[in-house]
Amino acid sequence: MKRRIATATLAVFAITAGVLPLRGQFFGSIVFDPSVFGKVAAQLVQMGQQLDQMIKTYDMVTNQYNQMLFMAKRIPVAMATRYRAIATPWKYPSATNTYGTTGGWMGAITTGVNATAGYLNSVERLLVYGPAFANIPADQRERVMKHYATVELTDGANQHGLEAIGSLRKNAPAVELAIQGLEDDSLSSDPNYNTEIGVLNKINAATVIAIRNGQDTNKLLVALTEQQVIEAKRKRDAETEAINNHIQMMGQGKTILDDQSSGWTAQMSGYRL
User: Fold this and answer.
1) d(Cα 74, Cα 195) in Å, to the nearest integer?
2) 201 within 8 A of 182, measured Cβ to Cβ
3) Which residues pair with 30 in a beta bridge?
4) Which of 67, 92, 138, 257 has the fewest CB atoms in 10 Å of its CB?
């Protein structure tokens, strides 16, 4: 308040000096020049305004600093104790290998390695018709080929799913280690881990891990969807075969039955033991 009064007083002096005649006056042996006094007063007014601005700037910086101090405070709890989540360990399947047909499967489903060999060694092997295919009636060959394709597609989808599951299990320890490190850094009370850049880096790392896990989930969903599509094909082929048989029966059934039943009465009448 006193500073503002002084500033106003200087302004009055400056205005007064401005209206006084601009000529020197003698006071004893001292020469008084009103123009010089006016300039000094104007400079003092300007300095007062600058001081006001400096005080405002100081107040703003102080408020920002206090806000930064408040934002830098840690919550008054032991974060490593209160927020530590217990990780659920991965469980690996196991099976006996009495006749040597399951070892490859178990190796593939836990590591993703040699999925094709492990799968084929544990399932009923699909044979090839070879020359016997020529013995199939021509009107049945397409149906046989489509059914054969369904089994081949099923084998491919099963091998893909086996490899995907095994790869996820193989990489699980490394992913768990990365998550554990991120959790340790996030719950640490060390100031070096809680700087603004440090917090942002941890947020970025958590986001990347979430994206990786989301991608792995998508891979499993794709493998599952592929098997569902093949199962839908299997059902569709069965329904189509039933409809086609019904169409053939409705169109040719009477003729076929007449051809097969013609002469039955005479043959039965003439039958002798």
Assistant:
1) 12
2) no
3) 27
4) 138
d(CA 85, CA 179): 11
Nearest Cα to 35, choosing from 47, 49, 21, 45?
21
Q: Are 205 and 186 in contact (CB under 8 A)?
A: no
242-273 per-residue burial string, b: 16 or more CB within 10 A, e: under 16: eeeeeeeeeeeeeeeeeeeeeeeeeeeeeeee
- Looking at the fold, whether 109 and 173 belong to one and the same domain comes out as yes
Residue with tokens 């409809």: 243
Phi (first) and psi of residue 219, to 5 degrees: -65, -45
Domain that holds residue 123: 79-269
The answer on 102 and 66 residing in a single domain is no
pLDDT digits (tens, 9 = 90+) for 79-99: 888 888 888 887 888 899 999
**Cα radius of gyration rounded to whole Å, the chain:** 46
User: In this structure, are residues 153 and 145 in contact, taking their beta carbons and an 8 Å threshold?
Assistant: no
Q: Answer whether 114's CB lies under 8 Å from 108's CB.
A: yes
DSSP string, 92-119: ------TTSSSHHHHHHHHH-SSHHHHH
Residues of the chain with pLDDT under 50: 1-2, 5-6, 8, 10-24, 26-27
The count of domains in the chain is 2
| Structure confidence at residue 10 (pLDDT) | 47
Q: Which of 25, 45, 71 is the last residue of a domain?
A: 71
Q: Are residues 143 and 29 in the same domain?
A: no
- 36 within 8 A of 27, measured Cβ to Cβ: no
Full-model pTM: 0.64
